[in-house]
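task queued by scheduler; priority normal; single chain, no ligands, no partner chains; default sampling; output format set to structure tokens
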Amino acid sequence: MSLQSMQHALSNELEHNILSYWLKHLDHEGGGFHSYADHNGTIQADFNKGVLLHSRILWTFSAAYRTFPKPEYLQAAKQAFDFLAGAAWDAEFGGVYWMLDSQCNVIDSQKHVYNQGFAIYAFSEYYLASNDPKALVLSEQLFDLIEQHAADQEFGGYLEAFDCQWEPIANSLVCDTQEDVLAEKSMNTHLHILEAYANLQRAKPQVKVESRLIHLLELFEEHIIDDKCHYGLFFQRDWQCVSQDVSYGHDIEGTWLLDDAALQVNQPTLRKRIQDSSLEMAYATLNEGRDFDGAVFNELHQQRYLDCDRIWWVQAEAMLGFYNAFEKSLDPKMLEASQHCWDIIQTQLIDHTHGEWHMQTNRFGKPYTDLPKVEPWKCPYHNGRACLEMYLRLEKLQN
């Protein structure tokens, strides 16, 4: 497939199979979006509404509108924004809750920094799409709340889990891997705080945000990227790593997110170091983390057990991560790896019957039909963003 054909296919997939699918999940009665659909697309209207899911929906439709300015995309974004800025927002203590019921009553009020970060990411993107000043105000309020309550002044980085009133609690929300560790800090939360702060800096450049971006980038250099060019996943407060597993999906996703964040700071030397490190990580995934047909493995457990299932978000992020590495290196192997991921997506992950993407298939592309299409963690952000980013980058290449 030519790059021009690939670009056309990506935009078609985004608009006519991903965004079109999610437009059907608007909850016109209860507000926000319906947050569960089975594999065939049957909506469960009384399912609880994930705040994280709504942030990811808001980001997706906001970003899509900026490239494909269709009014229905902005309207969908506004519906997600109204949910997040309304029922999901804690007017007393600040921040967004974790979970609401189908009628938008709060059922889990914890304030996890991972969730706050995605709200910043979404609000700042909605501001860029709509120019609504309230979205920028909420982004800045969340930044200040995270810095006030979660920043670890002793060891750097952020503590992650808090109750409604911002008192620390056990960090069980993101420590859900097969390693069964309960750690105070995680790579995943810090990666998505980095992602969020980078977008806030893009929306409104500020010295205080740039300073924390620099801190986070240096943190990844010093503590999170290991000597084998993988991310450590879980850490004690003092940054001693307490996990052994390798997450190839996070490794390759993080390569382009690190580069994007580095572009938002006026530190050329740091930017160059980050770009070099992220390229080394991309090569590690290229050489260690791919199956016989180019699909990227999910995880390596205990240094010896490979999870070879094809996960929707892993292949999406790998397509983009390898292409990002190609842009820097001009290595045709990276372009080929990106195209292999797109082939896997087209032939195995896209549901050509019911729409959207299968959450997961086995090693040979057979989907697990007992898994849902929509749930609090199954969202349009990874695949929607990958299609959109690839479309824009291929457009830039052709121009």
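post-processing summary
- The chain is about 55% helix and 5% strand.
- Residues 3-23 form the longest helix (21 residues).
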